[in-house]
């Protein structure tokens, strides 16, 4: 019995030991399960971090590549635009030069053909006369008494009868003068020549002796030949000299005729006095050609200057556009950064602040976009500002400048005009924005055309006018324009005050000290 109890006790002890071992194994298993679960979570977390890192790295790389691509494309576009603008400018200049040279070549060809024809004609006449003169010379050498001078006098009488009175006193050589190329000028010159011929015929009948009549006729031929020479040497810059030469010519002939025969001096004096204004009129008619040509040249210069100013303003507008694009890029980057912060933010107050900032930045971007559109409109169209300005201290109270600019800030152009080339700044009386500023400026110029200060160079856009007169003209075109009639001239008036008070010298000394 005792032995059986001992065996049971031993079995129970074994069961307890195994139970304890089993519990220990259960705890170990639980620890292993917990460790496995922890490892699994760690692996999942590392996988997520790795995926995020991979995604962020790829996104950053794509963003960097995209930014570099945009920079490269932007730089290439800028270079292409500059090359295109330069090519367009050079092409325009070459086109203008080609047209000018073509016109000059055509004119030279035409003149060359005329001269060649005349030269050929005179060469033939000269050859014919040379042969005849040599024959006559040989005849005289061999037979000195063979010439019948009575016969020659009869031939001269017949020759005289063959000439009309006008033809006898006509100029022997007619030079190729420019008035002949214009129907209007040719008509004016023909009318003036008729007056000259009428005057010649009137005075020819007053000479009763052959000697005096001969002197008169030779004088007339000489005078008209001299006039041809004066007209031929005329140019745009020597009108006064030509008129002075005409006056000197008349006085010289008067002196020669008076010294030769005092009896005809009164008649010659009246004749030359009446002939002088007709000669002057002929010079002025020929001069109209040069004057018109100068106007055409000045118009070409004005067009080129306008093209230069337009190109310069387009360049400035392009620079302004690039500045705006850079500023816009900063705003866009800031917007993207704030949107990224907003996507991660959970605090409501901070989210509202970020949204407000994003909205503010987007409004600023919209404003920059409007400026870019305005620049494009100015660069490619006719929109701009027409201004009316004065400079009382420099030009007085009755001289104004009426011009046009495409600048976004028109005062930049006004400040340029008031630089070191004039002693004082300009006052602005009107600043008119127009979608067709070129047409508006031209309309004002046409209205004031006969009040130009410089009637030759139309690039000088200064006009004589009263400020109230200009106000009326501007309001007739656009009644809504604000027009200031006061000439402020601050710098000029302050300078005059200092000059009157005599304080300038002492103030300068104090400033230097």
Tell me what you see in this structure:
This protein has a 4-stranded antiparallel beta sheet with strand order 3-1-2-4. It contains 14 helices and 4 strands. The chain has 513 residues and is mostly helical. Mean pLDDT is 76; it is low at 165-169 and 506-513. The longest helix is centred in the N-terminal third of the chain and has 141 residues, at 2-142. The radius of gyration is 50 Å and the shape is elongated. It has helices at 2-142, 149-162, 165-168, 183-204, 210-232, 239-260, 265-344, 348-380, 392-395, 411-417, 437-447, 467-477, 490-501, 504-512; strands at residues 384-390, 399-405, 427-434, 462-464. The protein has 4 domains: 98-146; 148-300, no CATH class; 315-380; 384-512, no CATH class. Helix 7 (265-344) runs antiparallel to helix 8.
Please give the structural blueprint:
Layout: H1 2-142, H2 149-162, H3 165-168, H4 183-204, H5 210-232, H6 239-260, H7 265-344, H8 348-380, E1 384-390, H9 392-395, E2 399-405, H10 411-417, E3 427-434, H11 437-447, E4 462-464, H12 467-477, H13 490-501, H14 504-512
Antiparallel strand pairs: 1-2, 1-3, 2-4
Helix pairs in contact: 4-7, 5-6, 5-7, 6-7, 7-8
């Amino acid at each position: 019995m005792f032995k059986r109890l001992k065996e049971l006790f031993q079995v129970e002890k074994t069961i307890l030991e195994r139970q304890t071992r089993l519990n220990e194994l259960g705890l170990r298993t639980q620890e292993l399960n917990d460790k496995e679960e922890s490892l699994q979570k760690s692996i999942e977390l590392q996988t997520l971090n790795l995926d995020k890192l991979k995604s962020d790295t790829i996104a950053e790389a794509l963003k960097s590549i995209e930014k570099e691509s945009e920079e490269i494309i932007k730089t290439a576009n800028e270079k292409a635009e500059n090359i295109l603008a330069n090519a367009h400018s050079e092409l325009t200049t070459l086109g203008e030069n080609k047209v000018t040279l073509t016109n000059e070549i055509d004119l030279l060809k035409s003149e060359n053909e005329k001269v060649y024809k005349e030269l050929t004609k005179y060469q033939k006449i000269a050859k014919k006369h040379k042969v005849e003169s040599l024959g006559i010379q040989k005849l005289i050498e061999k037979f000195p008494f063979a010439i019948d001078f009575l016969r020659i006098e009869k031939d001269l009488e017949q020759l005289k009868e063959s000439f009309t009175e006008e033809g006898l006193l006509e100029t022997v050589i007619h030079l190729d003068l420019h008035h002949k190329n214009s129907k209007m000028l040719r008509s004016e010159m023909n009318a003036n020549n008729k007056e000259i011929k009428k005057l010649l015929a009137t005075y020819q009948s007053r000479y009763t002796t052959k000697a005096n009549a001969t002197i008169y006729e030779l004088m007339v031929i000489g005078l008209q030949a001299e006039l041809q020479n004066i007209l031929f040497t005329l140019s745009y810059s020597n009108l006064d000299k030509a008129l002075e030469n005409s006056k000197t010519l008349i006085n010289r002939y008067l002196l020669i005729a008076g010294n030769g025969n005092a009896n005809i001096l009164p008649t010659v004096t009246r004749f030359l006095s009446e002939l002088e204004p007709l000669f002057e009129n002929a010079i002025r008619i020929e001069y109209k050609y040069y004057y018109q040509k100068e106007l055409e040249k000045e118009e070409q210069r004005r067009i080129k200057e306008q093209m230069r100013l337009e190109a310069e303003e387009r360049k400035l507008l392009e620079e302004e556009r690039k500045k705006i694009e850079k500023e816009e890029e900063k705003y866009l980057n800031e917007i993207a950064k704030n949107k990224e912060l907003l996507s991660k933010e959970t605090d409501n107050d901070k989210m509202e602040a970020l949204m407000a900032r994003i909205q503010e930045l987007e409004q600023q971007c919209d404003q920059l976009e409007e400026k870019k559109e305005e620049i494009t409109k100015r660069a490619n169209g006719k929109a701009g500002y027409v201004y009316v300005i004065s400079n009382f201290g420099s030009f007085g109270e009755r001289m104004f400048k009426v011009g046009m600019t495409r600048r976004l800030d028109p005062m930049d152009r006004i400040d340029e005009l008031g630089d070191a080339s004039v002693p004082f700044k300009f006052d602005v009386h009107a600043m008119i924005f127009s979608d067709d500023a070129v047409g508006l400026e031209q309309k004002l110029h046409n209205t004031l055309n006969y009040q130009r200060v410089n009637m030759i160079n139309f690039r000088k856009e200064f006009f004589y006018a009263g400020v109230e007169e200009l106000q009326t003209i501007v309001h007739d075109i656009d009644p809504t324009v604000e027009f200031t009639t006061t000439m402020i001239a601050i710098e000029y008036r302050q300078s005059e005050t200092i000059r009157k008070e005599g304080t300038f010298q002492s103030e300068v000394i104090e400033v230097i000290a």
